[in-house]
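Consider this today:
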Amino acid sequence: MAYKILIVDDEPDLELLIRQKFRQYVREGHYEFTFAHDGKQALEKLRQDSGIEMVLSDINMPVMDGLTLLSELEGLDRGLKTVMVSAYGDMKNIRAAMNRGAFDFVTKPIDFYDLETTVSKTQQAVEAIKSAQRVRHQLLSIQEELNVATRIQLSMLPGKFPAFPDRKDFDLFAEIAPAKEVGGDFYDFFLLDKDHLAIVIGDVSGKGVPAAMFMAVARTLLRATALQKLSAGDCLTYVNGALVPQNELSMFVTLFYAILNTKTGELEFSSAGHNPPYLFSNSSARSLDAISGVILGLIDGATYETQRVQLQRGEGILLYTDGVTEAMNIAEELFGEKQVEQSLRENGARPLQEVVQALFSRIHEHAGATPQSDDITVLAARYLA
């Protein structure tokens, strides 16, 4: 499309000179000129044609002079670039024009080679602004899409607590703090039947949309497979076998899956390269001694072992992702397992929501003003029967 320029000057000869000097540019569709004889006419032309992107205006004109026109142009909010024309040596008016927002100026008598250069430079500035506006619009669109993706992703995770208000034989609480709009951490819990509660936590490699999509696939596969009431190890073996053939990006997920017998307190579990959970009660806390299999999604044919541990009444299990232990402060010191254990010893007798939130508070206190670099996810369950 031709670059539209409005020429504002009360000298009739200027229109003829402009058309003559720029006739090749007009013929080739580079420029399109519109003319006005004073500032008032110029404003009318601008209101009629929203495609005008540059104004070349004389300063000294009847009805409305160029400086007044400059002031009026501010109210149009069009992103126009204005080049002012004045007599050689009229530095007072030229300075006034530049202070009021003029992009550039040329002097009379007009040097058309200089004018051509000025018009070209002004056009480049306009194109740069338009390009920046396009990029900004694209970024805003992407941000809005990411916001929607965040809401969708978080809506996939159970977030209503108490999750099972009628059950008195166990309790649950979970919290997630994504480092970006969307991420790869997830947790889940659901009843396999009235006596068996499934709990799971996972951490997908990478960040952003790819990790979020892989997370959604892994979570859906795990839940669908778990509902077939396979053992914990067989469940992870099946999920791994389903992920590997379609994993062209070589992504992976660490995952811990457990089944709590809500009658007896027996916890059946299997781990795929995930951080070992903690068992806690009152003022004690210990890391669960678990044999871990390889991460899910990379090695075809990998198998996973089913393990068991007996929970005592009132004893809880805390699952977490490595965003907890790897949270850093300004000195690049990691939060570490010892602080997780210490938090559990100090708060393990409290309600689960307070146990989890106390851990988050401790993490935030450790990190201080250091930006969060990874998703932080914690899930706690307690056997109460």
